[in-house]
Amino acid sequence: MTAFLVFLLAANLAIKIWLNRRQVRHVADHSGAVPPQFAASVRLEDHRRAAQYTVAKQNFALAKALVGAALFAALIWGGILQWLYDRAAELFGSGLAFEIALASAVAVLLSAADLPLEVWRCFGLEQRFGFNRMTPAMFLSDTLKSAALGALLGLPLLTVMLELMRAGGPAWWLLAWLCWAAFSLLMSVLYPTLIAPLFNRFAPLSDEELRQRIGALLTRTGFRSSGIYTMDGSRRSTHGNAYFTGLGAAKRVVFYDTLVERLQPEEIEAVLAHELGHFRLHHVTQRIATSLGMALLWLAILAWLQTQDWFPVSLGLRTRADLPGNALTLILFALTMPLLTFLLAPLYSLLSRHNEFAADAFAARNASAPALARALVKLYKDNAATLTPDPLHSAFYDSHPPATIRIERLLACAPTSAPA
Fold it and tell me: Residues 6 or more apart from 29 whose CB is under 8 A from it?
């Protein structure tokens, strides 16, 4: 098992490095000329800046991958997890408190290891390219809020999971899945109104002309929501975006204020039509169903591993018969499964890009395809997104189609605008 895991870790890292370097070379090699489709709307200076930003992000991603692999090796084979296991047993005995303490200690360690990288990303990478507006005080506040939410929501969920593993019987994983499904759906409903406002301010869209235009769009697409909101994303970053969130009566569409300031009303309408397309075409439901289906599969695998005494021992860990092994199995499962699921990334990306094309087509039918194309070009420019990604890297990682392909297909599916 150890040899297989070493091979899997090395293979994951090798693939990531290979794709990373491909992306860097491809973007750098194509930084000298704007693609012909964008020559009239994107300056060479902006294209080169996007290339530099992409290369910097890839270098950061490579550093993060190397740190992650080193931390994985240190935890399992470097004795860190064993040390935490032994200390938790000394301090908390052999009951549920031991298991919660062990799992929590690993979670805190992983978060602490990621913190310097996030500081570097925010105040190094993003600051260098003029995107960051976070202050150290705001960063600290966000970090503390996230940690408190993680403890408030995660500890009860962890406790339920460990109790079900201990006393839920052979079908505990089905009960655990039902709990997880209920928790996920509840968070989808509560996130827009209770959690997101802890980090950002949301306000109903105030522009009356734009509200009327959007109201007409909502009517002809048969969409009902709790409202269209703007979010003060400019407090943290100059990046612009829009997203759909929530379920049922809590669903809402959110525009970053940076996006509203940058786009024309017709372009905002087209972006909203794209977001509504995800809802009307059931992409949100499909995503939730896929997520819950994968959770059921992972829990079934976890339930099988729970019965295999060789699992922790084969990784070099010295376990004690008087200590429950559920938390250790859960930790090892959480650490090792990403090595397998990483290989599924191209499939996830393919499905996501298919949905993006479909949402673009929906927007072209219900708004203006040229307006959406103009909005996308502005977003590419404002976010310094490369127009020339490496095809293999894009197929593996990118949830959205490459810019040239996306805009060509968008304009082809609706050459004329729908009535405003």
Answer: none
Structural domain boundaries enclosing 62: 1-420
Select from 417, 363, 120 the least CA-distant residue to 242: 363
Q: Given pLDDT bands bounded at 50, 70 and 90, which one contains residue 418?
A: very low
- Spatial distance between the Cα atoms of 237 and 127, rounded to a whole number of angstroms: 9
Q: Quick one: DSSP state of residue 184? A: H
Q: What are phi and psi of 403, to 5 degrees?
A: -55, -45
41-45, 190-194, 203-207: least confidently modelled range: 203-207
Output the pTM of the full model. Answer: 0.88
Is residue 29's pLDDT more than 80? yes
Lowest mean pLDDT among 183-187, 190-194, 294-298: 190-194
Average pLDDT of the chain, as a whole number: 90
What pLDDT digit, counting tens, does each position of 210-233 carry?
Answer: 888 888 888 888 877 667 888 998
Buried b (16+ CB within 10 A) or exposed e, 376-406: bbbbbbbbbbbbbbbeebbbbbbebbbbeeb
Distance CA(91)–CA(89), nearest Å, equals: 6
| Whole-number Å distance between alpha carbons of 89 and 107 | 17
Q: Give tens-digit pLDDT for 280-289.
A: 898 988 998 9
Amino acid type, 216: A
Pair 290, 376: CB distance under 8 Å: no
Distances (CA, A) of 111 to 68, 108, 133, 246, 354: 11, 5, 23, 27, 33
Q: How many CA atoms lie within 13 A of 371 on its CB side?
A: 23
Choosing from 209, 275, 356, 408, which is the catalytic residue?
Answer: 275
Whole-angstrom distance, CA of residue 410 vs CA of residue 420: 18
Give the number of domains in the chain. Answer: 1
Q: What values do phi and psi take at 217, rounded to 5?
A: -65, -45
- Can 408 be counted among the known catalytic residues? no
Asked if 360 and 410 count as a contact pair (C-beta separation under 8 A), the reply is yes
For residue 393, what is the enclosing H or E element? helix 391-397
Q: Give the C-alpha separation, 90 to 179, whole Å.
A: 31
Of 200, 183, 355, the C-alpha closest to 275 is: 355
d(C-alpha 94, C-alpha 322), whole Å: 7
Q: Using CA atoms, how far apart are residues 290 and 292, in angstroms rounded to an integer?
A: 5
